[in-house]
């Protein structure tokens, strides 16, 4: 109880919420979750020190109480444990051990650690802004066709027996096996395999762009990107093929906005 009251007095619950918001806003920054983890650790160390000081608790007794909480949380790990962060996934055994040692033999580093972490976060956010600006910004992508020689065999919404009379969800570019396929705009590769989506797509690449746009490239003969890759403008991502459910070599190209398929040609001026 004393531990939680200390968290409340320092408004740590607001800090945790702000961290969650930061993690959502800067989800593409590979360092943001690690920084959040370090901040939580520093916050807990500070809370331990302040709790012992303010409530004049014997450090050993306080450490034993937290150890009891840890044992109980391991038994009831699916229940909410509050700000003490004694869930099985929050800290490693060594980190728990170090925290208990710091309670019994306190170091004057907790407050400094929090300040350092805040500085690192500020630098990290600025770094994120500059490294991601070319790819994820507030302006819509500047689209280019995924093939150089444009020859469309099936338009968006077309009805065909091969699709069980369902409207076509994209457009088909015809060509020969091995024709280079390009990303239509800068973005991050989400999928590059033949198993994540329905087998009818064959080898497929799915790319996340800015403003909630995604593009899908399927029936590829091969691809030379992998999930997690960041793509600049108009890179070769694979080659045209006939994998999946097809009648011949072509590229099935889809464009989605906020999860909804749209006509890709509506985004091109010609």
From TrEMBL:
CDD domains from the UniProt entry: M23_peptidase
Stored Pfam families: Peptidase_M23 (PF01551), Peptidase_M56 (PF05569)
Domain Peptidase M56: 2-84
PANTHER family linked: MUREIN HYDROLASE ACTIVATOR ENVC, PEPTIDASE-RELATED
Name by which UniProt lists this protein: Peptidase M23 domain-containing protein
Lineage: Bacteria, Pseudomonadati, Pseudomonadota, Gammaproteobacteria, Alteromonadales
TM segment ranges: none
Molecular function GO terms recorded: metalloendopeptidase activity
Range of residues in the leader sequence: none
Domain M23ase beta-sheet core: from-to ranges: 167-264
InterPro entries in alphabetical order: Cell_wall_metabolism_enzyme, Dup_hybrid_motif, M23ase_b-sheet_dom, Peptidase_M56
